[in-house]
Amino acid sequence: MSCGDPHETDCSEVLDHLYEFLDSEMPDADRVKYKQHFRECSPCLEKYGLEEAVKKLVKRCCGHDDVPTDLRSKVLGRIDLIRSGETVPEHDVTASPQATPQES
């Protein structure tokens, strides 16, 4: 996504790190840079607003539920795989194999 206007920080960089921005998981200098981009770029600001609204909705609807430790570990592992550029398996490779029905 891009608004077509030149920015100091490219739209693709901002969108690639949008969740880190939303979760305040980035250095303050980067946050300042991204805030400036949102002031200049309405498509990115719109995407930010949408993702922020979804995050708030999920928190409101599911925020009281504790996440099982093993699920959290699996999700974080997948995120690490995606960030490193490795192929993410379609199925959960950490799950125990399911019994297959026997043929009659």
UniProtKB/TrEMBL annotation:
NCBIfam families in the record: antisig_RsrA (TIGR03988)
One Pfam family it belongs to: zf-HC2
Annotated protein name in UniProt: Mycothiol system anti-sigma-R factor
Domain (Putative zinc-finger) ranges: 11-44
Gene: rsrA
Species of provenance: Streptomyces xiangluensis
